[in-house]
Specification:
The complex is a heterodimer of chains A (920) and B (101). Helix content of chain A is 63%, strand content 4%. By secondary structure, chain A is mainly α. Chain B is of the alpha+beta class and 101 residues long. Chain B is globular. Classes of the chains: A mainly alpha (920), B alpha+beta (101).
Amino acid sequence: MPLARIQMRLPSPTRIVILARVPYNPPMSAPILTTKLYIPQSRQKVVVRARLSAQFNETLHRKLTLLSAPAGFGKTTLLAEWCNQQRAPVAWLSLEESDSPPARFLAYLVAALQTVAPQIGQGILPVLQAPQPPPTEAILTVLVNELAAIPEQFILVLDDYHLIDSVEVDHALAFLLAHLPPQMHIVIATRQDPQLPLSQLRARDELIELRAADLRFTFSEAAEFLNQVMGLNLSAQDIQALESRTEGWIAGLQLAALSMRGQTDTENFIQSFTGSHRFVLDYLLEQVLLQQTQEIQTFLLHTSILERLCGPLCDAVLNVRDGTSNGTLAQLERANLFLFPLDDERLWYRYHHLFADLLRQRLRQKFADASADTNGIAELHQRASTWYENNDMHIEAFQHAAAANDVERAARLIESGKIPFHFPGVVHIILNWLDALPKHVLDARPALRWRSAALSLIIGITTGVPEKLDAAEEGLQGAPLTKETRNLIGRIATARATLALTRYDVENILVQSRRALEYLDAHNLPDRTSAYWTQSIAYFFQGERVAAREAVNRAMTLAQASGSNFSRLLATSTSGTLHEIDNELDTAVETYRRALQLAGEPAISFASDAHLGLARIFYQWNDLDAAQYHGIKSLELARQYDRVIDRYIVSEVFLARLKLAQGDVAGASAILMRAEQDARAKNFVMQMPAIAEAQVLLLLKQGNFAAAAQLAQTYKLPMSQARVLLAQGDASAALTALEPLRALAESKRWADEQLKVMVLQAVALYANKQREKSIELLGDALALAEPANYIRLFVDEGEPMQLLISDFRFSILKTLPHLRAYLEKLLAAFQIPQSKSEIRNQKLVPKEYEGSKILIEPLSERELEILNLIAQGYSNQEIGERLFLALSTVKGHNRVLFDKLQVKNRTEAVSRARALGLIA
Amino acid sequence: MSTLLAPKMDFDQLAVYQICVEGQLDCSWADWFGDMTIVPQANGDTLLTGAIDQAALYGVLKRVRDLGMTLVSVNRVSSREPDASEVKSKINTIPLKEEKK
């Protein structure tokens, strides 16, 4: 094999993570709006609706209570009133349109549940802030298990559910309902029926429904409302007339009452109202506004642009400095003018959604009429934006700037570094705005083009990114080279390096990351971290391991300084791989475990690589069950990546090789066939050599030498070619094939490659009757492999290696006496079935180890699983989290486990299990 | 009428829709309903008419929902993109859908 070809081959391409990413800002405290979790507390009298309360009280015997009725039927008021009377704790969540992304919905769901049980979901909130969080069901599974541990009955209220426009959230809720712990009850208030299996719930009597027909005011309720609550003094006939005109619609009755307040001639009002065909609200709002002073009218109209109101914010929007708005808000609440308090201190309020919609409509009309003041509404938004910015609420500041169409301001806010991009949904809000900007606006602002590209990459979208970056670069042409433009050039290069990474374009990664590091501002830690990280992977691709190590160390240091868990996870994971390929398996395991801690539980998809690293090492250590556990984990996580990312094939190939080691040739064959078909269909050319390498092993096992030879030849795999030649009995040709590879591995200091070649060379030399050379080489290989405790490296060579070691053990021990224990371990490994599943298949026939008794009762699958995790040093708590078991359940299993093993504690259990050969 | 046409996938096609809601609205509500033409009917209902695609249609229905208005009917009166004069003439010739109960 010509040397040039070998050099072209990327070392261990199977180990490389390819991800679309850019650095993502350090986590700040998540901006959970607590006002959304507040149960509105009315200071006013309300109509006591005993007939509904009775139905409502059935809630605690059902899974779901559904309040489904159009706007203005008093859903929120009724619900709040009922909740305030409950003895059971209530978790309340007022939903908004922006809560539709599942991660954001879940973040608020957890925050709401924490008001009932503060411990709930503490592990979940951090993983929701990852650019591509784990699947919703995995998160909900953890959540449901935690909820099940709450000892008392509790209620979850989701108000304004109709604002959620997301099939995923509907599915999440359906999943939650299907697995609802018995002490939990859900109440949903909505303007339209949610996409939940309602008929099924009805059939099982798990649903209570209150609909418009139930909610509308009856005559007596209307009477109580108008005369007691609203303080009018109307005759039965008047009440009857109002009730029939509004059809018991509460918003209508309330507006009617407000219009009549202070009017002496209520009869006249009722007559013209009932005589009018106009839409009830349109008619009444006009009447209500007419009843108010000019100041209040302006206040209502101008503040209607706000989602939430507080005194100082209203002052700012109205451009008054006298601080009167606080008083106005209190006055409006007392007057029943559709204002809900959002906290106990009455700092924040919101308008009834319907009322706010009506006010906004009037506001638009007002400014449309006054043609001189066309910018009126934009100006209100600008004032709101300024106030929010001054008060450190940057997402809201951005949203109002966007509503004002103030591009300068919005762009400045995006680049201020104060918008928490990691908070679920925020990226989508900003990306939607950026994508909707007209071309000429973007042309003048290359930084916005770059930002749009970078945000796309954060959420794993590469489509359209190159175009955005090209346009950004174009926009920079001719611009003076200031500090800012230099940094922007660096950022564009960082994004290009990330893109190149998704395409395995090594040259380009290096060019772009070098350019990035040259131009990026020294204080721009997130982008510099990313540039070093992509650089380290490019060097790794090239086999330049010293350079790769240096770059990843820099990335680690910067990630640490930037405080971003996510950046640390990626750098740590890559660092683990670099230890692994240097045969530093203990350090690698430690590093991978640190990466997993950073990945949280349930782990985000980026943890896939650390799991696969652990799987490979446990495989080498001949702990095939642990290897399988981590291998499957890595596959599950890798499948969550974007469909264009080929990462999961790497995990599949690993699992196929594991199956071969477990003696399941058919299973290995099936996995490889599927992987190959997939890789071909999706054009994952980079994965083809690794698949072929595993297929060669399979074909050799099946005795199909010709096919194996062809495959090895097609993909230019020298190790595989040597194996085929050996199998065909041509040891000398095998040695010739291996020689250049060995020289290359040594000159490049590829420790793992070198060791692999040496092992195969030793076998080939032995087969070639070069006894002395074979002994020497095997001794060298063993000395290199012993510190890392490699087992499968030798065992996988099968019978020839077994003969080799047993033949030479005494000559080797003469020069290397410290290898005695290692050699014995290796020889034992050749003989015993390695997999616990094999032991299980044999109905647990225990080995007669000296001094150990026979296991009386076999362990269950679950107990073996737990035993393995104990042996790996996981605490009971961690085991519970991993296996989705309650702590008490884990402890229960432990007790049975200890009994069966006849031991008293975890340490004894592990050593006894080792002695019995139950675990490695 | 459109019911006689074979069903086809025309999500992106503009079509003239008429949405009838209970209660009378004046034309100041046009922009609320995405610039639909607003025509009060003699029976006290209101007809919203406009050439819109499917997505815009659902947007208008959502606006109807958010005002708490009662929806009486939704009809497609033309499946092609009409010109302005056609819309006008159609509106004027459309008979009232149903009498109020």
